[in-house]
Each structure stands twice: as structure tokens, then as C-alpha cells.
Amino acid sequence: MNHPNQPPPSSDQEERPSPKFEWDFYVSAVVPSSTTGGHISDTLGVIEVNSSGTLFATGGIARKIRLYSLDSSPPSCKFNICTPAKLSSLKWKPWSAGKTMGSADYDGVITEYDLETQMPVFERDEHSGRRVWSMDYSHWDPVVGASGSDDGTLQIWDPRHDGGKCVGTVQFGTPVCCVEFSPFGGALIAVGCADKKAYIYDVRNLVHPVAIFNGHQRTVSYTRFVDDRTVVTSGTDGCLKMWDVEDQRLIRTYRGHTNQKRFVGLSIWRSQGLIGCGSESNQVFVYDKRWGEPIWVHGFVAEGGAASEHGFVSSICWSQQVEDDECTLVGGGSDGVVKIFTGKRKALTTV
User: Fold this and answer.
1) In principle, which of 30, 93, 117, 138 could form an S-S bond with 144, CB 3.0–4.6 Å?
2) DSSP string for residues in 168-203
3) Per-residue pLDDT at 5
4) How far apart are CA 264 and CA 292, in angstroms?
5) pLDDT at position 14, please?
6) Distance in Å from the first CA to the final CA of the chain
7) pLDDT reading at 164 higher than 90
């Protein structure tokens, strides 16, 4: 039986240029687990920072959406929303002024919540009760959403129609682990599947993919846009890969973290091309998109705590605030602990 934070079951070689360490990172805040001593029942499956970098939300096994202020130190929990099922995905709804959040759960349900009333305002259940691993909102048509499920489908849906009418479907015949619309306003969507492949589709024509990336040796668990023509994928073969969408070619492979069976998180700080991911070694890894080796690694142990034999970093999210010399990364662990990391560019770097 799969671990509840584990992708469906489904390694390449490249020279590793030496990275140039241009950034210093440090832990700026720690949010302890809500369970005594931290426990797998509070595993964080997803963290999402809002567009202004002032709030972040967490979700996971505990069946709660927790909303925190990122401006306070330590980050304060503003409120909890109890959910009927374990959560696999959260997304802030674009152009909702931070007032609406979508969620996907293990019962196959997509729910939108009004964060002011803390009440659900929309629900759809069109994946036959099969676990929905990932959901996202389009930045091209900000109302339209997408979801990928264990039922082997990518579904595009519109909540303006009764019940969130499905306006497009792609049948993969294998679990769909990740969906992400291009955050740059185009009509592209990236999809990662248990068939070891990632796909790029134009949502206006779902008959044929724009690109197919076939390079991972196991399940593709995450897909993330770096810019409007570049995508990073994460696989349970223990590597990340960056692809050129237009040329459909592999640009670079990133290795260092450990990932063989679980979702460990993947996020891109698009302003400066930094890639963050978790690891089954219970560490946070940061890569610069220019180099295949990590530029920073941090052991994810609660302050004053002992390392967990089975602990792993399960969720990662960058704040997308556009600053040249400072950044914020939020990471969550399988024990429910959240750490806030601040990165500062070094004053002087050598070439």
C-alpha cells in the first residue's frame, strides 16, 4: 500500500559543473508541529505562498488548511479550516485578491474556500472518487481550473458552469501526479504522470500535446514552469530535469537530493532561477538553474530536536516577490514542522 504522501509507483548521467555559491541562506523562523513531538499524522503535503509574499497556507494529512502570516516573526496562524479529507494540493485563486483558495483531496474532490468567511463556495467531484493529486488555476483565463487524478485523467473545468462543468479532458491511462498552468499568462499547461513522462498541452487544443518529455526513469511527480518556454520536472528517480518546450530537448539534469517514492515538493523562484526541493534524506535542497549540483543543503530537524529516522521534507514553496538580493523559501516536513528560510545574495562573488 502506498504511503499517503507517496506518488503512484511507476536513473541518466551528465557532467556536473561546479556551482558558484552566490547565496547565503539561514533559518529565519520555525513553526512547530501541531502534534506533540511531531508525527506522520501531521505530514504537510503542500505549502503555498500568496502572490504578495505576506501569507502562506499549508495542507496535508491532518485535514486542515492552516493560514499563516509570513510578515510576523514567528509566523502566526491566522486560522484553520477543517476539511473533510486529507489534502494533496492547494492553490490561491488568481485575481481573487487573496480571498479564495482551491484545494484537492484524497476523496477526489475539488473545493474552493472563501477565506474571509472560511466557508466552501464551490465543489466538484468528477474524478470518480479517485485521489486528486494536483490542481491549479489558469492565468490565461483566471476562472478555469485543472486537476489530475489517480483515475488517469487531466480535467479542465469551469466553475461558472453548474458543478464545475468539465470543458476538456485528456485520458492518460496512468495516474496524473501534477498539473500546472503557465504562470506567464499563456494557454500552456504542464502535466506529470506515472508513465515516467511529462506533457505540455495548449488548453485550446487538447487533442495533441505541444511537447512530450521522456527522460525520467520513474514517476514524474512535479512539473514547474521556469519561464514561458522552460519547464523543470521532478521524478522519483531522484533527479530534476529542465526542458526547453519549443525545442523539446533536455537542457540540464539536477542531482543531489534523495527521492525514490514520495512527494517531496518542488518550487521555482522564477525571478532569479533558483529551484527548491525536499528530500527523503530529511533535507532541503536549493539548486541554481545554471548548475546541476545543489548550491545549498539544510538538514530539516526542528530546533533542539532529534533527527527522525523516517522523516522527509514533503513540501516547498518560494515567495515570488521580485527582489534581486533577497528571497524567502518555506518548507514543510513529514513531522508537521514548517521552516522559513531567508536567502541573501553575497556582496561579492568570484567568477
Assistant:
1) 138
2) EEEE-SS-EEEEEE-TTSSSEEEEEETTSEEEEEET
3) 61
4) 18
5) 41
6) 49
7) no
